[in-house]
UniProtKB/TrEMBL annotation:
It comes from Roseateles terrae. Pfam families: ABC_tran. Signal peptide: none annotated. InterPro entries: AAA+_ATPase (IPR003593), ABC_transporter-like_ATP-bd (IPR003439), ABC_transporter-like_CS (IPR017871), P-loop_NTPase (IPR027417). This is Iron complex transport system ATP-binding protein.
């Protein structure tokens, strides 16, 4: 498909480069992810999109150093991730996995405080835990056992844990995998705004794996589109990317737009021919990319 760099070269507008992936590959069972080349600037918000099983979480785990690449290198602040000590890395970046697997009966406050374990003397811990719970709209869950909470309540406590982890950092990195999937629409919106405010106030970059196209289009600067283990596009989250999204999912999409933002709706029963197998499908894609190039 189209080289990702054709649409966006990442961090080339004078921003401070935070994370670089160079020629990264990893084998995950039947899926080979990569080679991936990516650049992320401090303070950017990027949504990772793609069909189920495409390799989105795998990409996030490589950025988090939860997985080591079989080839290539991931650099954070120009230093290979492999050279970071566990405690330095824990202070600099926080990871919210899709499945957090904390099934034991810890109190909510302790689950959030787990985000602070890399700090040895931390006089502000109790205060930060409280404030992180408030940001994640989970204050009222204090005193409860984590394993008695609903899915959406557990997700908010886990979100508070990652906020607490990078609470007093500058220019850190938040890596979150479907963080709002278990939330109702009102909570989804207010927690998305909370995450944005939190990241913006500290200069943190925010990278989120998402299935919600509307969140991606309205709250993120950039989209990384992953399909079959390949990064097929790296582009701005603007209406002109809708044809790319149709190619990504093989589904016709309808874009609605007003002064409040955009909505992207799948249209039933109208499949898009996939690029690579149908030459004519290349056309809207090329036009979109040329339009993006022209805007730069
Ligand atoms: N530890 C593993 N061992 C073997 N295969 C794996 C492992 N982890 C992931 N995979 C496979 O790699 C592929 C990509 O998985 P990944 O979790 O990155 O997909 P995804 O795009 O995040 O999917 P979803 O949207 O369904 O969460 C899948 O086919 C998955 O089965």
């Amino acid at each position: 498909m189209v080289p990702a760099a054709a649409a966006h070269d990442g961090a080339t507008h004078g921003e401070r480069l935070m994370l670089v992936m160079h020629d990264v590959c990893v084998d995950m069972g039947r899926l080979r992810l990569g080679p991936i080349h990516l650049r992320l600037a401090a303070g950017e918000r990027v949504a990772i999109l793609g069909p189920s099983g495409a390799g989105k979480s795998t990409l996030l785990r490589l950025m988090a150093r939860e997985l080591r690449p079989s080839r290539g290198e991931v650099l954070l602040d120009r230093r290979p991730l492999a050279h970071w000590s566990a405690s330095d890395l824990a202070r600099r970046r926080a990871v919210l996995p899709q499945q957090h697997g904390v099934a034991f009966g810890l109190p909510v406050e302790l689950v959030v405080a787990l985000g602070r374990v890399a700090r040895q003397s931390d006089g502000r811990q109790d205060c930060i835990v409280q404030e992180a719970l408030a940001q994640a709209q989970a204050e009222h869950l204090q005193g409860r056992r984590f394993d008695t909470l609903s899915g959406g309540e557990q997700a908010r406590v886990q979100l508070a844990r990652v906020l607490a982890q990078v609470w007093d950092e500058r220019d850190g990195l938040l890596l979150v995998d479907e963080p709002l999937a278990a939330m109702d629409p009102g909570l989804t919106l207010s927690l998305m705004q909370s995450m944005r405010r939190f990241a913006a106030a500290r200069g943190h970059a925010l990278v989120a794996v998402l299935h919600d196209l509307n969140l991606a289009m309205n709250h993120f600067d950039r989209l990384w589109m992953v399909k079959d283990g390949q990064l097929i596009a790296d582009c701005d989250a603007v209406p002109a990317t809708v044809p790319l999204l149709e190619q990504l999912y093989g589904t016709r999409l309808r874009l609605l737009q007003d002064q409040h933002g955009m909505a992207v709706l799948p249209v039933m029963g109208r499949e898009v021919p996939l690029t690579g197998t149908h030459a004519q499908a290349q056309e809207p894609l090329q036009q979109t990319l040329h339009a993006m190039e022209a805007r730069r």
